[in-house]
Amino acid sequence: SADADNPILVPNDQIEISCLDGICQAMITPSQNDNGETMIYLRVSDGEKTAASQIKLIVEPTNDPPTISNITDQRTDENIATGSIVFTINDLESAADDLFLMARSNNPLLVPDENVVFGGTGKNRFVTVMPGNDQSGSAVITLTVRDQSAAASTSFTLSVNAAPDITDIGDIIIAKRIAPV
């Protein structure tokens, strides 16, 4: 059997002891996103004799990457910006306002990176995308959120519908016909 003096850091059901040919091993799984130290008390018995030991376990903190919500594919018309496309960001170790956002387009003629504009504060954000002038087609837009050492991304496809074009056909001259009287 085994138990920890800090069951929040290491729940007792996350300490597994296995023995084979008199050699025992302990598999210890700390709680996700937790850190600190605890004493682990181990006891094994063969029915006649019992052996006990203890170890100090130190779980060091690690940086978890931030998160960004998924965005569904979007559609707009030529020369028309999208509406506000909402999404959320989060990070276990950093305040949302301390995270960095960036955008990349795989089709910079259709959507230049600088035409992807972020807004919002905290966890609740939005992005507006303006297609390039007189451009139509599709582009994959990738939004990335970054903390000091890790990043996460989400991508969506923006389809830009072509506007009808009117071509200049020049002046038209019509001869005036005079009807007989």
Highlighted features:
mainly beta, 181 residues, 4-stranded mixed beta sheet, 4-stranded antiparallel beta sheet, 2 domains, Immunoglobulin-like, rod-shaped
Task: Report on this structure.
By secondary structure, the protein is mainly β. The protein contains no helices and 13 strands. It has strands spanning 2-4, 15-20, 23-28, 36-45, 50-59, 67-68, 74-77, 85-90, 100-105, 116-121, 124-129, 137-146, 151-161. A 4-stranded antiparallel β-sheet has the order 6-8-11-10, with no helix packed on it. Strands 7-13-12-9 form a 4-stranded mixed β-sheet, with no helix packed on it. The mean pLDDT is 91.
Q: Assign the structural class, choosing from mainly alpha, mainly beta, alpha/beta, alpha+beta, or little secondary structure.
A: mainly beta
Largest sheet: 4 strands, antiparallel
What portion of residues is helical? under 10%
Extract low-pLDDT stretches.
Answer: none
Mean pLDDT score, rounded? 91
Number of domains: 2
State the strand order across the main sheet: 6-8-11-10
% residues in beta strands? over 45%
| Total count of helical runs of at least 4 residues | 0
Examine the coordinates and then state which fold CATH places here, giving the name of the CATH topology of the largest domain. Answer: Immunoglobulin-like
